[in-house]
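Dear colleagues,

As part of the handover before I leave the project, I'm documenting each prediction I ran so the next person doesn't have to rerun anything. This entry is a single chain, and its sequence is reproduced below.
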Amino acid sequence: MTRTPLLLVLGLLPILATTACSAAGPDASGQKAAAASTDAADQRPFTASEITRFDQPWAMTFLPDGSLLVTEKRGKLQHLDLASGQKHEITGVPKVAYGGQGGFGDVILHPQFASNHVIYLSYAEEGTLDTRGAAVARATLALDAKGGGELKDLKVIWRQSPKVSGEGHYGHRLVFGPDGKLWISSSERQKFDPAQDMGGNLGKIIRLNDDGSLPADNPFASQGGVAAQVWSLGHRNILGMAFDANGKLWAHEMGPAGGDELNLIVRGANYGYPIVSNGDHYDGRPIPDHSTRPEFAAPKVTWTPVISPAGFVIYSGNLFPQWKGSGFIGGLSSTSLVRVAFDGDSAREAERFNMGERIREVEQGPDGALWLLEDGNKARLLKLTPKT
């Protein structure tokens, strides 16, 4: 998430001060940083083991056999056999509009994947006149005996509307709900006002049937058109969605300069962006807080300074019994893993673990381990297991 030069300077001040005040020079400061990182790792209740590395990974999902699908932002879908450590590229993927925050996005399985082998992909897609927008496609995954494979019968079932200029804030996170519906986060593409415009689907959470058709019980179904896709509106940049054990949908979104949010998503609710936010514009202009406009749904948690949330899972495994029911959010600018505790319709940050690198994605493995994907080139895939 881009920051203003002023905020960047402010963020660098502690680093500059440390460098200026250190009489021991850069080698000593580097040793101190390494020691601090080691101390932080020593205090974590888990061991983080590097499994392999990927080129700008964005999302991952486990297959029933325990292997892993990973999207790489430049446009590759990788199949990782965790038993052998071998990676194989899956062919037949759609062409992506790579650049800025755009490229390959999410990958999830159909609820009946074991029998139908259908997966869902999101990605940035080129339009006309230098415009772009997110798209969601479904396809049949056909693996071969060597661990590679291809996508067959790929069909686009949803697109952001309208396509606009720029390369930021696509969102395009995917999740299936307990109702069997496909939920899509459609961010506002850094265009502000479309989040409140029901003539388009930017700045909204979308709910569809598994084939892309429109559920008759969506809150704005009677309006027809794009509005019939919408479940909630007034969102900024949603990069994580997850259902809890009670079937409630939680989603986090990046705020502007301050005001990252975790929201409980309610049918037909308006979350207020860009009219309200607990952050401000990057140029310093204030945005009224949520408390000034009670007609808009307020976030359950806000973060200032921001954590830059990306990836989200609500833990249901047994490997970390003390964390069952907790949410885990990856932090980009905060280089952290954030644990969120829930109490009914309330939530709070419970713990924050310094990971030392930007965390793009969080997933729960079949054995209850937590899995993280770092952000960027040569990004590590990490498996988190309890310390013995």
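Residues 18 and 193 are 41 Å apart (CA to CA). The chain has a mean pLDDT of 92.

All the best with the project,
I.
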